[in-house]
Amino acid sequence: MGLSCLGEGVCTALLGLPTAAWGALAVWGCAAFADVVYNPTAVAALVSAAGDEVRGRIMSLWSAVATTSLALSAFTTGALIETLGHRVLLVLLGTLMAAPGAAWLLALRTGALSRQTATE
């Protein structure tokens, strides 16, 4: 999960760098693939870590976030693009997405998070 989060963040940040259209398309494809891997993995980790009595609540919360986040992110991103520009915003958002993935992998590597805990 940490690797896909890190990958999506790095790919998003790379989209902010000046590249040819084909390069941007390739990076966007990698980010999209990382997103497809990350989201179900994150939900599965949350649901499997929860007890039976709260799994429905977690799925309801996930559904509410998934439903509202697209509209809220479009509104927020539009305002930020006008203020910062798309390149700065992509690098900033990519860095914000990559940081938790890097922290997760570092915690696994240093032993602060066991592999069994990370996959349960």
From TrEMBL:
Coiled coil: none annotated. InterPro entries: MFS_trans_sf. The chain crosses the membrane at residues 20-47, 59-81, 87-107. It comes from the Bacteria. Keywords: Membrane, Transmembrane, Transmembrane helix. This is MFS transporter.
